[in-house]
Give the backbone structure.
Amino acid sequence: MSDSTVSTNGDYVNFYQYKGKHSGILGWLLSVDHKRIGLLYLGSMVTFFLVGMTLGFFMRLELWNPGQDIMGPQTYNALFTLHGIIMIFLVIIPGIPAGFGNFFLPIQIGAEDVSFPRLNLFSWYLYTIGGLLAVASLFLSGGPIDTGWTFYAPYSLRTGTEVIMPLMAAFILGFSSILTGVNFVTTVHRLRAPGMTFFKLPLFIWALYSTAWIQIIGTPIIGITILLVVVERLFGVGLFDPAMGGDPILFQHLFWIYSHPAVYIMILPAMGVVSEIIPTFARKTIFGYGAIAVSSIAIAFVGTLVWGHHMFTSGMSDESRWVYSFLTFIVALPSGVKIFNWVATMYKGSIKAETPFLYVMAFIFLFSIGGLTGLVLGSLATDVHLHDTYFVVAHFHYVMFGGTIFIFFAALHYWFPKMFGKMYNTKIANIALAIMVVGFNMLYFTFFILGYLGMPRRYYDYLPEFQGMHQFATVGSWVLITGILLMFINLFLGLKNGKKAGNNPWGGMTLEWTVPSPPPLLNFKKIPTVKYGPYEYEHYDEVTKNVN
Amino acid sequence: MSTNSTTNVAHEEEHGHEHVHDLRDDYGSKLGMWLFLFTELLLFGGLFLLYMAYRFEYFPEFQLSAKSLKIWMGGLNTIILLTSSLTMVLSIIALQRRKIKASIYWLITTIGFAFGFLVVKYFEWSDKFAHGIFPGTIETAKSNDTIV
C-alpha cells in the first residue's frame, strides 16, 4: 500500500494516485473510497492473522512434551481463548466480506461505491477499536480472559480474569459486522448497473448478499447475549447463574443462535470466491448458476435452524437432539450442491492450472474432509464419543482454515493484480501452497486420530502415549507456518518489485476485469450496461473488447 | 423525502464529477435505516426470549411478584413513552413541512417526556430498593417472601 504500488497507465488516474482532500496517511484513514477501506481491512486482517498464528505456534510448542514446557495451564487457557477470539472475530468473520467484498462488490455490480460510504468507513473504525480492545485486554491487571472464545456461563461469570473488555470488543465487532451487512444489502438492491439483474450477478455477489443477511439477522442476538453477561458480571442479576436460579443452557442457546449462522458468515463468501475462480480458469460457464445462487440462500436459511447441534451433550431433551441432528444433515445438501457444481464446471473445461486455481483445488480437498467429518459430529451417537476432543478441533480447522482461510489466500492471489496492478512470482506462490498443504495435513489430520483416541481439547497437558502424535503435529505446525510466511513474503515482494500485471491477466469475465488495474476512483469511466451473465464465455470477446 | 425523488446513479449516463457523494438515493437510505431497525428488533428479541423462558420456568414467582407492582406507575410510564413517540414523529413531520419552530417545540416536548419518565422511574425504583429488591441482593435470588 506504499507509493511504490502506484502505476500510471497512460490517460487515467488510479485510486492510489487520486488526490483527495487529504494526503498521506490521512488519505487512507479518512477515505470513504470502498477500495481504500477494503485494503485497510485486508491490512488489519493480515496483521491480526499473524498475531493469531503466533499464539497457535506457542500452543503447539507447549504440547511438545507432556506436562509443563514453556507455560502453565493459566497461560495456555488464555492463549487458546485469544487465538480463537482473534482468528474468529477479527480474521475469519470479517475476512472475505469486509476485505474483498468492500473492494469488489461495487465493481462487480457496476457501481461507483457502496450505498453508504461514510458508514463503511465507520464500520472499519468500529472493527479497529474492537480489535485493539481485544488485544489490550491482555494487559489488564486481572489477566487475559481464559473462558474459550465461547464465553460459556457460568464460568465466564465467575472467572477472575478480565472478561468484560474482550466481551465489549466482541460487541463492537458485532456492530461493525451488522453495519457492513446493512450496507451491502442496500448496495446490491440499489446500485446494480443497468441490465445487471439478480440472476446476472456474479456468484461472489450472491454469496456476499446471503452473508449480509445472516449478519443482519444473527449478529444482534450475540450482541444482547454478550451485554447480558457483562450486566450479570457487574450487577449479579442471576440470568445465567444456576446458583441464583438462572439457566446456563439458555446462554448456550443464545450464543449459538448467532454463532452457528456465523459459521456460514465465514464460509459462504469463500464459496462465492470459488465460484468466481473456477469458471475463470476453466474458461467455461459455471455449471448450475441458479443452483449455486439459491444454495447460498438455502444455507443461510437452514443454517439459522441448526444451532442446537453444539449442545448435544449439554442436557437437551432427546426430541430436540434428533431434530437438530436431522436439520444438520440437511445443511450438507446445499453444500454438496456447490461442490458437485464446481467439479462439474471443470469437466471438459480448458483448464489453466494457475496459482489461484491451485489454491482452490487445495480448498476443495481440505473442505471436503472438513465437511464430511462434520457429519460424523452431527450424528448423535458418534458426537457423544467425540465431543470436546481433538476431533472437533481438527474438524473446524479443516473447515475454517482449510476452507475460509485458504480461499482468503486464493482471493489474495486472484485479485492481487487487480488491486495493485502488479504480479507476484507465481512459481514461489505455488511452492508455498504445496508446503502449506503438507504442513496443514500433518498438523490437523493428526488431530483427528488424537481425538478419536480420546485426547480432550483445551488441555496444556496429555497422557504420555500421545506424545509421538503431538510432536508430529507440532512439526507440522512449523511446516505450515513456513509455507504461510513464504507466501506472504512472496506477495510482499510482488507488491514492491512485481511486473505490471495488465488489466485482465487471468481472462476473467466479471466487471472488475473490464476496468484498469488498479481501478480509477469511481471504478468506471462510464457505468456499463450488462447484457450477458457473468460467465458466458461464448461472449468473452465482446465483453472484454475494450480491455487492453 | 418521497421516493419519487430517487435517483439511481447507475442510470446516470455521464459522470464527470469528482466526489463520491453526489449520489442521493432516498429510497436506499430508507431501506438501510429499516434494515438497521430490524437488527434492533432482534437485539431486544434476545431479551424477550429470556423473559419468555423464565416466565415459563418460574410461573408462580412471576405471578406472585406481579402483585407487588405499582400498576399506576408502570401505566403512567407506558403512556409517557407512547406519547413521546407521537411528539417525536410530529417533530419530524413539522420539519418535513419546513416549520422549524414547531419542530423544535415538539422536540423539546419529547425531551420533557423523557425526564418525566425518569422521575416516575425514580419513585418506582426507590420503592423497590426500600424493600431490598435490586440485582445481586440475596432477597432477589433466594425467595419470594420478601417480594410480597
